[in-house]
TrEMBL record:
Family: Belongs to the germin family.
Species assigned in the record: Aristolochia fimbriata
A GO MF label: manganese ion binding
Entry's localization field: Secreted, Extracellular space, Apoplast
Signal peptide residue numbers: 1-27
Binding site residues for oxalate: 110, 115, 120
GO CC annotation: apoplast
Pfam families referenced in this protein's UniProt entry, alphabetically: Cupin_1
SUPFAM superfamilies, per the entry: RmlC-like cupins
Keywords: Apoplast, Disulfide bond, Manganese, Metal-binding, Secreted, Signal
UniProt superkingdom: Eukaryota
Binding positions (Mn(2+)): 113, 115, 120, 161
Disulfide bonds: 36-51
Name recorded for this polypeptide: Germin-like protein
């Protein structure tokens, strides 16, 4: 009986090991083909994009040019982004990668925002940037750093972050994200410029201000 008990215990332990490892054994974590170039004209709805016929794929589907060219910011916040995601490079489909070049005017900023589907690493090309991100509730701790040319910084997925050009001359940075379509939610736009608008009675209580202040901020967007 004792021996049967040990055998039963060993079988039970083995079963638990198999069940624990099953997701790793049977799940595919990498693409099942060489590539899946996005067919942006296909109307089929999938999580990503339908693959273009491999016979029609060319080197141009994996190519992007111009990241070395500075852009002049014309936005009120003083920055402009040159995106390289699946919309610009169809070959990024299923590869889990995206890039962006950000150009900042003097004292320009990339306003507080977050990426719901990707983490980010940024490298300063020119200038000096103040960067940082905020941890989640309840700490809401700011982790911030001043970066110079050649410095890098990581923004974890889903956390609000920002960049600010500390100089009176243009600055630039290059960022990489681990999603072909990381998405961007700019906090100010999302809160004060949603369509339809969030009711003023919700926002005035959330931000501890009066209704006129909320309406004034909304008018700026």
């Amino acid at each position: 009986m004792e021996r049967m008990g040990r055998v039963s215990a060993m079988l039970g332990f083995s079963f638990l090991l198999i069940m624990a490892s099953a997701p790793f054994v049977f799940a595919d974590s990498v693409p099942l083909q060489d590539f899946c170039v996005a067919d942006l004209n296909n109307t089929v709805r999938v999580n990503g994009y339908v693959c273009k016929d491999p016979a029609e794929v060319t080197a141009e589907d994996f190519f992007f040019s111009g990241l070395h060219n500075p852009q002049v910011p014309t936005t009120p916040i003083g920055s402009v982004a040159t995106h390289v995601n699946v919309k610009q490079v169809g070959g990024l489909n299923t590869q889990g990668l995206a890039m962006v070049r950000i150009d900042y005017g003097p004292y320009g900023q990339n306003a507080p925002h977050y990426h719901p589907r990707g983490s980010e690493i940024i490298v300063v090309l020119e200038g000096t940037l103040l960067v940082g991100f905020i941890t989640s509730n309840p700490e809401n701790r700011l982790l911030s750093k001043v970066l110079n040319k050649g410095d890098a910084f990581v923004f974890p997925q889903g956390l609000i972050h920002f960049q600010f050009n500390m100089g009176n001359t243009p600055a630039a940075a290059m960022a990489s994200l681990n999603s072909q379509s990381p998405g961007t939610v700019t906090v100010g736009n999302a809160v004060f410029a949603s369509n339809p608008a969030i009711p003023v009675t919700v926002l005035d209580r959330a931000f501890h201000v009066d209704k006129k202040t909320v309406e004034l901020i909304q008018s700026k967007f």
